[in-house]
Amino acid sequence: MGKIHYNLKPMEAQKAINELCDYLLGEDWYVVDPLRPAQVNAIINAIIVDEIKAKYPPSDGGLIAKIRWLFDK
């Protein structure tokens, strides 16, 4: 059975990405690449997702997916 979530407040997508970034990658994580202001959020969001996928195995793929993830690095 799933976890029951009490007292949660809705949040915008960008805030959710930023919170996941801080939680999973650390509050000190940052991007070194020089980016233009118009492309910052889209590029940084893609980098955040790529970093999380590189650090954490898929949760729903089972043991075989986790082993593939581990050795495909």
Q: What structural class should be given to the helix and strand makeup? A: mainly alpha
* Strands, count: 0
What global shape is seen?
flat
Proportion of helical residues: 40-55%
**Element order: H for helix, E for strand:** HHH
**Biggest beta-sheet profile:** none
Number of helices: 3
Sheet-strand content, in percent, reads: under 5%
Low-confidence stretches: none
Mean pLDDT: 85
Question: What would you say about this model in short?
Answer:
The chain has 73 residues and is mainly α. It has helices at 13-25, 40-55, 62-71.
Q: How are the elements arranged and paired?
A:
Blueprint: H1 13-25, H2 40-55, H3 62-71
Helix pairs in contact: 1-2
Report on the structure:
The protein has helices at residues 13-25, 40-55, 62-71. With 73 residues, the protein is mainly α. The mean pLDDT is 85. α1 packs across α2 (40-55). It contains three helices and no strands.
